[in-house]
Design goal:
The complex is a heterodimer of chains A (381) and B (372). Chain A has 381 residues and is α/β, with parallel strands linked by helices. Chain A is 40% helix and 16% strand. Chain A has 2 domains: 49-153 and 279-302, Rossmann fold, CATH 3.40.50.2300; 155-259 and 309-376, Response regulator (Rossmann fold, 3-Layer(aba) Sandwich). In chain A, strand 3, helix 4 and strand 4 form a beta-alpha-beta unit. Chain A starts with a helix and ends in a 5-residue tail after the last strand. Chain B has a domain at 75-305. Chain B is built from 13 helices and 5 strands. In chain B, the strands form 2 sheets. A 3-stranded antiparallel beta sheet of chain B has the order 1-2-5. Chain B has a two-stranded antiparallel sheet with strand order 3-4. Chain B has 372 residues and is mainly alpha-helical. The chains are: A alpha/beta (381), B mainly alpha (372). The interface between A and B is large, with 60 and 62 residues.
């Protein structure tokens, strides 16, 4: 009889594997077929880019309405601008399986291979060494090779602006931030958001809940709920999906999204705004480089001035006054007269991190490993 | 059970005809392919072409099979781990966590010990440390099971989550020993080059993603098969599995048998994690957490009916579905990953479901319609 039990257990395990897949399938169904702004200028491509064989590898699915969705929008923009088709691979785990995937793409003759998760960096580097004629591009990492570049952007700029909206919207003075991993990119985002919040609401606090995952709607939602339970009335996030927004909506709290504002309409009363990626133009540049026979291997760090980073649409909870303030700050960020990380800035353990009047260099920002005053949480997760 | 006026009865077989050992798995896979084919056709993909593509990308092409063998390597170990425990009716499902611990222990050895050792010694040392760590992770459940009869299913499962958080803590939560000190980005510190094996390459320019650890895993499986056939220990565990009371009556030490089987099972999963270190990863790599090779080991063990040699085949079947499924997204007629995973699920479910027909005899008898 016991053997039966284990067959049942194995069934359950197999069923779990299928269920996991179906979960992401559901997410894909929700994908909204919204036109990109890019469609306005549908000119026939002037040049023939058919020699660019491009593939992109995603950690999740475009149906996340977040990180992968926004990359997918950028890829769609690339396809349309250059008149080529890009092969998309979804749900590819980091580690050994991604090595095999990049390897296979390079073998199959793709000459532009892009990967959009931090953990793809070492696998990609390893494969890039084997295929010197293939151009590899990695989002969010820092390692490069002769035929491997990376691209990312100063999301902290838009995060700061979204913090202003959040700081003006809170009534309890308690904000919650659902965050994936305590790495510099995420810490920097929490800090910029908090600086924005406290620029208009100097006593407000931002409590962080770590999820240890980029993409897991259930965990993201749970973390948001735990923050709401402590009295937070605005939820911000560094996660791939809109799940924290769902939790905020159910609790009647406000929500600052991330990655994309495509779902803002589903949250008419609770959506404030959100920092948004605009990857398309850089994808076009990468492909044009490949067509010209080069591979841009220098790290690319986009910002609001070049349009890679934007602030999404506003919800009804952001007053005109606040919008004007944000517009003013945004203009200052774009023309370089205002840097969010300007001292005096203390960390939340009381140590001075940026002296009065000084500004953090890009290098400091990229390695930021503390949380600023006003954040409740530990930079060690 | 009455279906369409016929009574369907299942009777447990006393002996399994040897023909069924081949017929059932083959029919199961065929059935799965038919079901998957309906799915494919419904979503507008030609079933036959897709299957040929899957076969090519997962099994029959040179790089397809070598990618698959690379992925299958840790899976053979976790499969052996599950099979070893399950044959003794000990349902340890802690392979996932034990594998992580093997990765941690192996990395520790690779950083601390390997520098002073030549590769021929460093690699076995790393693998042994992985095995010890995996065994250590199951020591508590083993003790609780043997002494107090605590369910090993629950205790090993819960420890998986602890192990998962431990890996996350080492890489993301702390700046300690296992974290790369050269960068503020969270990633593992790499082990000494002496503790790494190069991937197998053929004809010099064809570097594959298979590592020599696959050969070690195969040797492990075969020797385990042989040892459990000929050794006294193998005999005792078989007796105990069939009837614990008989074993006790014959003077066998049940505490020793239960705890040692669980410890060896943990060590096998731990070796799998350490193989990931000497092979592709070279560090504590949170990427391993996303693949679920420990849980997959349970499915592999069940597919292999706890036969250690069959574990190799089952692991390759499973890994090929993964690599082939991923590759289908890049084929000329891209198949979404969700459908590829449904295919994988169908093959696994049917292969397991086939067990029912191997163990039981199905008789169908026409029954008279009852007049209402």
């Amino acid at each position: 009889m016991k053997r039966r039990k284990v067959i049942a257990a194995a069934f359950a395990a197999a069923a779990m594997i299928v269920a996991a897949a179906c979960g992401s399938d559901d997410a894909a169904d929700e994908e909204v077929t919204e036109e990109t702004e890019a469609t306005e200028e549908t000119m026939a491509p002037a040049e023939d880019y058919s020699m660019v064989k491009a593939a992109v590898v995603y950690i999740g699915v475009p149906g996340d309405a977040g990180w992968t969705y926004q990359h997918d929008q950028g890829i769609a923009y690339l396809e349309e601008q250059l008149g080529i088709e890009v092969t998309r691979l979804e749900n590819i785990p980091e580690g050994a399986e991604s090595v095999a995937t990049f390897d296979k793409l390079a073998r199959d003759g793709y000459n532009l291979i892009m990967g959009t998760s931090f953990g793809y960096m070492d696998p990609m580097l390893e494969v890039a060494a084997k295929y010197p004629d293939v151009c590899f591009q990695h989002a969010s990492g820092y390692k490069t090779a002769e035929n491997m570049g990376n691209y990312f952007g100063a999301m902290e700029e838009a995060r700061y602006l979204s913090g202003i909206a959040a700081g003006a919207a809170t009534t309890s003075g308690k904000l919650g931030y659902v965050a994936a991993f305590p790495i510099p990119e995420v810490l920097r985002g929490i800090n910029a958001f908090t600086l924005g919040v406290r620029s208009v609401n100097p006593t407000a606090t931002v409590q962080v809940a770590w999820t240890s995952t980029w993409f897991d709607p259930a965990k993201e939602k749970e973390a948001a709920q735990s923050l709401l339970a402590t009295g937070a009335d605005v939820i911000a996030q560094h996660q791939d999906t809109t799940a924290p927004g769902e939790a905020a909506k159910e609790a009647g709290a406000k929500w600052v999204g991330y990655n994309s504002d495509t779902k803002a309409g589903d949250f008419p009363d609770t959506w404030l705004t959100g920092p948004v990626w605009n990857w398309g133009p850089h994808y076009v540049k990468m492909a044009k480089d490949v067509a010209a026979g080069t591979c841009d291997a220098t790290p690319y760090y986009g910002n609001m001035a070049d349009g890679m980073i934007t602030l999404g649409v506003y919800g009804s909870g952001v007053s005109q006054e606040t919008q004007d303030l944000i517009a003013e700050k945004a203009a200052a960020i774009i023309d370089g007269s205002f840097l969010p990380f300007t001292g005096p800035i203390k960390d939340n353990e009381g140590n001075e991190q940026i002296a009065s009047g000084a500004s953090a260099s890009l290098g400091d920002l990229l390695g930021q490993s503390y949380l600023v005053e006003g954040v409740i949480g530990s930079a060690k997760g | 059970m009455i279906v369409f006026g016929r009574r369907v009865r299942m009777e447990q077989r006393l002996t399994t005809p040897s023909s069924l050992l081949v017929v059932v798995p083959v029919l199961s896979v065929l059935f799965a392919l038919v079901v998957g084919g309906v799915f494919l056709a419904l979503t507008g993909h030609p079933p036959i072409g897709t299957y040929l593509d899957l076969l090519d990308n997962g099994y029959t092409s040179f790089y397809g099979i070598t990618d698959t063998l690379g992925l299958a390597t840790p899976l053979v170990c976790t499969g052996l781990s599950a099979a070893f425990a399950f044959r003794m009716n000990l349902y340890s499902i802690g392979q996932e966590g034990q594998m992580y611990l093997g990765m941690i222990g192996g990395t520790w050895a690779g950083i601390v010990l390997a520098d002073a050792l030549p590769t021929a010694i460093a690699v076995p040392v790393v693998l042994c440390c992985g095995a010890l760590s995996g065994a250590a992770w199951v020591a508590l459940p083993a003790l609780l099971r043997a002494r107090l009869g605590t369910s090993e299913i629950v205790s090993t499962l819960l420890l998986n989550y602890v192990a998962l958080n431990l890996v996350n803590y080492f890489i993301f939560g702390s700046t300690g020993f296992f974290r790369d000190p050269t960068t503020s980005f969270p990633q593992g510190r790499t082990v000494s080059e002496n503790a790494r094996l190069s991937p197998l390459s053929f004809f010099t320019d064809k570097v594959t993603n298979t590592y020599p650890t696959f050969v070690i895993a195969v040797v492990l499986a075969v020797s385990l098969f042989w040892l459990m056939k000929v050794s006294n220990y193998g005999y005792e565990t078989t007796v105990y599995a069939d009837s614990p009371n008989t074993a006790r009556y014959a003077g066998m030490n049940s505490t020793w048998l239960q705890s040692s089987v669980l410890l060896i099972s943990g060590a096998l999963a731990g070796v799998g994690g350490a193989m990931y270190v000497v092979g592709p990863a070279g560090k504590v790599d949170p990427g391993l957490l996303q693949i679920g090779l420990g849980y997959a080991g349970i499915v592999v063990a069940a597919l292999a009916r706890y036969n250690f040699v069959a574990v190799i085949l089952a692991a390759v079947l499973f890994a090929g579905l993964r690599t082939g499924g991923n590759a289908l997204q890049a084929s000329s007629d891209p198949v979404p990953i969700a459908i590829a995973v449904v295919l994988q699920g169908a093959v696994l479910l049917f292969a397991l479901g086939g067990e029912l027909f191997r163990r039981n005899k199905v008789t169908i008898v026409r029954v008279k319609q009852a007049v209402a």
